[in-house]
Amino acid sequence: MPSSVTALGQARSSGPRMAPSACCCSPAAVQRRLPILAWLPSYSLQWLKMDFVAGLSVGLTAIPQALAYAEVAGLPPQYGLYSAFMGCFVYFFLGTSRDVTLGPTAIMSLLVSFYTFHEPAYAVLLAFLSGCIQLAMGVLRLGFLLDFISCPVIKGFTSAAAVTIGFGQIKNLLGLQNIPRQFFLQVYHTFLRIAETRVGDAILGLVCMLLLLVLKLMRDHMPPIHPEMPPGVRLSHGLVWAATTARNALVVSFAALVAYSFEVTGYQPFILTGETAEGLPPVRIPPFSVTTANGTISFTEMVQDMGAGLAVVPLMGLLESIAVAKAFEMRFCHVAQAGLELLGSSDPPALASQSAAITAVSHRTWPDYMRLRIITASMPTRSCWPSVSPTCWAPSSPPTRSQAALGAVNAQSGVCTPAGGLVTGVLVLLSLDYLTSLFYYIPKSALAAVIIMAVAPLFDTKIFRTLWRVKRLDLLPLCVTFLLCFWEVQYGILAGALVSLLMLLHAAARPETKVSEGPVLVLQPASGLSFPAVEALREEILSRALAVSPPRCLVLECTHVCSIDYTVVLGLGELLQDFQKEGVTLAFVGLQVPVLRVLLSADLKGFQYFSTLEEAEKHLRQEPGTQPYNIREDSVPDHKVALLKA
Known about the structure:
By secondary structure, the chain is mainly alpha-helical.
């Protein structure tokens, strides 16, 4: 709605234009840090209607997904619901994007299962510590670190996660039991025991997948509604839209009804979800130690057990949030305030509770999504991912993130403000109080169908063809990440990032150069010039200008060089000496002011520079009328002197 965009936009636009000296307690500063104050005063009955419909639609989608993602995380079903409501309440106050919905996601659920050993206590602690880490990243503005994780690495990870999660549900789809969770063992044992497939589970699972696919295709191909349509057509359109939007709830309810029908006859062909704890767990601080039959596991030992998960979960949650944020910014042309998003999506550690089990990536948006900077504002923006539920004031809930699918439902439902999430959170709470007894009859094969259909779009088949066509070398980090993630997630991400970094360093150390042959040799670095590239540049210049007979003069065209360091200055000084020994000239052209300032300050012997390439060529051909600028400031053009003194 345009009015909602205006209201939310006021909060977003006011922050960045504030003077640095603005009081932190001024109304504008308070509104900037508490975005609800921007839209709540102008909240209308029409907005309430739209937010209620959107929140209801999202809730009907989120509840079955939360139950399914709890299975992915290896946690009891209720933990999926715990993680689906707390982020909604926190984001109501701190969120700046109306489309964002916080809740469990497939990727975060997978990471939770890797690093928490299917223990709720570990999951809760991981959520709390991840929130602390993300908040610290926001305060220290460390979001730039994520700029070093390239798109091919992210695509490789998400594609591997889609395969891992999807194949991990084959056992539930076929009714197989006692299958290991490690991917390679899982593949081996699944095919080894394929003959033990339960016909009932397999048929129901495939039927559920087919229904979900048909309903999704119907939703994607629904014609837009027009005001001139008859009321009956618009009513039919609305009913079809509601059914296709809430397809997860519809299909899971259908499967549960089928299972219950068999239950009353005394025969049950399906493996059921089983008991789900009713209501909320006791309110308490996150578990900093765990007592087992073999003794007590201390906080230090729990942290050591989670290991790399304390880095992988916050970072991947952030990356997932960025991807969702970019998608909505480009699709719906609105941007959420970065700093506040970081805070809003990672419930602050002071509030961070035992949200542990499921994954959930809170959706954060950034002021400049094109640069993928997560943390740019003075406050952490949708920062720390696993939305941790409040420690002392909220029940245990797993890490949460913003879901792309739920955000899409929100947007398509016409949500006007973050209040839509409040309706979703209340709906989840009501399901915990009144529907847990019904969850018992949900077949695991139906939840497996929901998960498989949810993660299938994560596998990007087009990226391989695109990279092959655009830049084949980028296939290397993608494939390295994709393959190693099947072994260990952290190794895949780390290896892919290292490969990308090595490619970046190689490009900086061996920049391409353009060479123009003629009476005067002209060499132009095609990119910047930094210290790793000095030796390569020196060798190329020596081989082209001084290793030939007779030695040749050379013009170094520096239009693309915007900065240099001391190592580069030393290398250029040695080149000037080499040229002087051979009795030829090395001239510089196209120097930008910062580069010229550094070279003049270095007082290099024999340093000559020209404003244009034509002037340099005339001088080197010994044509009269053109002289180089020397290093004395009085011989520099007036506009250069002014810039150098600036």
